[in-house]
């Protein structure tokens, strides 16, 4: 028997629940948009796994469906993306977007 | 052939206006993080009018870090800050952990000295800390303008920067000088043409979980009393990705996170929260965080490459401080950015005061910013430690050396009788061989480490 039981007493929360704990002040303007057509030729699809908020969803025709609402505004996506013009990235309007409390 | 243009964050760009004779304010500081608050504080104390712009609803609302704040630079701005700053715990235990998937070697240092004024480091929540520091700037006379995003620059007749465009209706604001303290993505410094090639390889992504635990449980698990706190920096916990991990104790929560090279993350196909889960499940970490309840998940970029990624730090009518100027020191055993932000923001404020007094905000005059920075830790440490980021992120330091030291220590402490003990040198040679370390590389990296850290 192993002396290291697999960590017990807690189970990973679902990704949805994880994001539901974060305070997002929703703006009507999408501060980031993704041109799904530009993504069709992309072989890395790096945004899909790198985005900490998991907002890039690949669809069967090779493009990407993106929802800006639960975004940390970190900048990872535009830095890992090699496809010119695929991501248009701005900050949300003042006062909107993510608000951290215990960070 | 040059690389295709990256999709960049797109501010509104630059607008040309006639140079205002009576600008709205002496200085606009963009970003109310520690860099901006420090700059605004210095300027307001010198009697200058300052707008401190912040895109979040309050200072700190957008800011995330590990984290520990190192207070020595604060002494110079707010004497006896420890009597009033919103601190979670005072770090008296500092551990550096080197791990493989199943092993961990920890250098665990404790000192009573760090638990007394003037203290070495404190854990704190950034929404509390940044708001507190910005309050000091406001008390000194700065005007905080929250919920306002600077979306572009204003340039005057001769091309000098004379203000910013904001997302408010009629949102143009003019000033004699703009200080960009807008953080790691600094679209203002990019817009001003001060950044040459921001590349993914210069950045790491930090992702963290704040896990609630009762206060006495934290004290028990981490061996702490009262307001004592612990700080764990970890190497070898991000398999396949250069980076590291951390654990910090707050009063009633534990922060656990990973720092990940963007280039490696991109290639690895691993997700940030999976890597945190891996760290939490490690046999050396699980007992510390087991059963704790997730209360907030957050992510933020770190300018990792130090001196090698620094933009030009000044231009006509503009200074750059804090993460916007890549002042964050990310060098493995050290992850310090708040103190560097305060340090560079303070110097930016001082040079701005001189420029306003001289009535000269040209790039030529502002060049003294760079010299003044070199005289302080804010730039001097980066010049000294310029080799450290690459060394820390190398495959040897990330994977082979952790394997080497762990297997060496394991073989030293594994009792093999009745087989007689092997000599330490022989064990070291075997461990080096097992982890694929060439002694030549070890010597070279040791020399590089001495040159960087020595
Ligand atoms: C995971 C992680 C762990 C870290 N750990 C530590 C640690 O333990 N100790 C430590 O000292 N440092 C740590 N750091 C580094 C530290 O957080 C940064 O170096 C520091 O926050 C930089 O301060 P700053 O004022 O330059 O930038 P920021 O704190 O990023 O502040 C920039 C401000 O500008 C605002 N802003 C940006 N753009 C605009 C705009 N266009 N208009 C208006 N406002 C704008 C933002 O909302 C923000 O408030 C860590 C960082 C990360 C990501
Ligand atoms: S956003 Fe960029 S990285 Fe993501 S799929 Fe589209 S082109 Fe590829
Ligand atoms: S900015 Fe960060 S959180 Fe937002 S979509 Fe891009 S990678 Fe995801």
Structure write-up:
The complex is a heterodimer of chains A (103) and B (454). The longest helix of chain A is centred in the N-terminal third of the chain and has 6 residues, at 15-20. Chain A is globular and about 40 Å long. Chain A is built from four helices and six strands. Chain A is α+β, with helices and mostly antiparallel strands and 103 residues long. The longest helix of chain B has 21 residues, at 338-358. In chain B, the strands form three sheets. In chain B, strands 1, 2, 3, 8, 9, 10, 11, 17 and 18 form a nine-stranded mixed beta sheet that branches. In chain B, strands 4, 5, 6, 7, 12, 13, 14, 15 and 16 form a nine-stranded mixed beta sheet that branches. In chain B, helix 1 (34-45) packs parallel to helix 3, helix 9 (338-358) packs antiparallel against helix 11 and helix 14 (395-413) packs across helix 15. Chains A and B meet through helix 1, helix 3, helix 4, strand 5 and strand 6 of A and strand 12, helix 6, helix 7 and strand 16 of B. The complex binds flavin-adenine dinucleotide and iron/sulfur cluster (2 copies).
Which chains share the greatest interface? A-B, 51 and 67 residues
Helix-strand pattern of chain A: HEEHHEEHEE
Structural class of chain A: alpha+beta
Oligomer: heterodimer
Rg calc of chain B: 23 Å
- β-strand amount of chain B: 25-35%
Tally the helices of chain A: 4
Strand order of the largest sheet of chain A: 1-6
Mean pLDDT of chain A: 91
* Strand count of chain A: 6
Q: Give the overall shape of chain A, derived from the CA principal axes.
A: globular
Largest sheet of chain B, if any?
9 strands, mixed
Based on the structure given, which CATH architecture of the domain at 27-94 in chain A is correct?
Answer: 2-Layer Sandwich
Please describe the biggest sheet of chain A, giving its number of strands, its sense, and whether it closes into a barrel: 2 strands, antiparallel
